[in-house]
């Protein structure tokens, strides 16, 4: 599939999902097994010194992360997203706060900004949609100031998932998905594209099969039995890695905080 066609699938996915998105995230991020507060606190800590300084969120979505940052860190906030529908949600949410912000319809591979303008960039739960993440990382590096902060957050594969079980599972559920990485792979990818001094945190959490279907599978007409067939095919090792049982599995959310490397 071509890159443009893939991006259209991602846009179509969020056209359908927009009205359900926040409700779905509340279920996963704020349930008794949720981890939303932990992720948000890590991001806020990484960006604590950005008051009145330019911050870009790539994949701003509905503003779930951007809005708390706007209130607690008070940066000059710019949010970019490929989905017009998600930007509408973000604008509605963030307009309830008095501070100014900018929301832009755009593509992470073609950022509409001058070089060296942002003190920090965050990309949360977004990069697994990127068919060519290296193109986006090159863009991020260009628009970041020297020693600018980059915070990556996304679901990652277990370090011992050498056959890519989780990646295959996600691809079966969602045609919008491009690729999951291991934490070590993402750290290396960032270092290979001009980022250094990476701080990595991995947060395990449980995800039910029902939630997988509601959040992803139903938008691509995936039948529950197809999901369960895929789960049945997991090896004993994969079952251990992801603590697979009759109700769900354990996933891993990785946060990487890193800095733009100084030019020699």
Order of helices and strands: HHEHEHEEHEHHEHHHE
User: How many individual helices?
Assistant: 10
**CATH class division:** Alpha Beta
Task: Give the averaged pLDDT, no decimals.
Answer: 93
If strands are numbered along the chain, what order do they take across the biggest sheet?
3-2-1-4-5-7-6
Explain the overall architecture.
α1 runs parallel beside α4. The protein has one domain (3-158, 176-206, 250-260): Rossmann fold (3-Layer(aba) Sandwich), CATH 3.40.50.150. Helices cover 41% and strands 24% of the residues. The protein starts with a helix and ends with a strand. It has 10 helices and 7 strands. The mean pLDDT is 93. The longest helix has 27 residues, at 3-29.
What topology emerges from the helices and strands here?
Layout: H1 3-29, H2 36-46, E1 54-58, H3 66-72, E2 76-81, H4 84-94, E3 101-105, E4 118-124, H5 133-143, E5 144-156, H6 165-173, H7 183-192, E6 195-208, H8 209-215, H9 224-232, H10 236-241, E7 248-260
Parallel strand pairs: 1-2, 1-4, 2-3, 4-5
Antiparallel strand pairs: 5-7, 6-7
């Amino acid at each position: 599939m071509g890159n443009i066609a893939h991006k259209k699938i991602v846009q179509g996915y969020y056209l359908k999902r927009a009205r359900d998105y926040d409700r779905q995230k509340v279920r996963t991020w704020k349930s008794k097994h949720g981890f939303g507060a932990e992720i948000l606190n890590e991001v806020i800590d990484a960006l604590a010194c950005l008051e009145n300084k330019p911050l870009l969120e790539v994949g701003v979505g509905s503003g779930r992360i951007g809005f708390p940052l706007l209130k607690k860190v008070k940066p000059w906030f710019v949010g970019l997203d490929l989905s017009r529908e998600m930007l509408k949600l973000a604008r509605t949410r963030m307009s309830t706060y008095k501070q100014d912000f900018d929301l832009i319809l755009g593509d992470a591979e073609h950022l509409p900004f001058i070089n060296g303008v942002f003190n920090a960039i965050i990309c949360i739960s977004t990069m697994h949609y990127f068919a060519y993440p290296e193109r986006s990382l090159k863009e991020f590096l260009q628009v970041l100031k020297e020693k600018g902060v980059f915070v990556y957050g996304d679901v990652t594969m277990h370090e011992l998932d050498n056959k890519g079980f989780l990646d295959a599972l996600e691809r079966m559920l969602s045609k919008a998905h491009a690729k999951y990485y291991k934490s070590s792979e993402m750290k290396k990818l960032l270092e290979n594209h001009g980022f250094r001094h990476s701080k990595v945190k991995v947060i395990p959490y449980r995800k039910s099969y029902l939630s997988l279907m509601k959040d992803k599978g139903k938008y691509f007409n995936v039948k529950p039995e197809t999901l369960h067939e895929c789960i049945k095919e997991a090896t004993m090792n994969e079952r251990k890695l992801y603590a697979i049982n009759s109700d769900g599995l354990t996933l891993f959310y990785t946060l990487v905080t890193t800095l733009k490397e100084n030019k020699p």
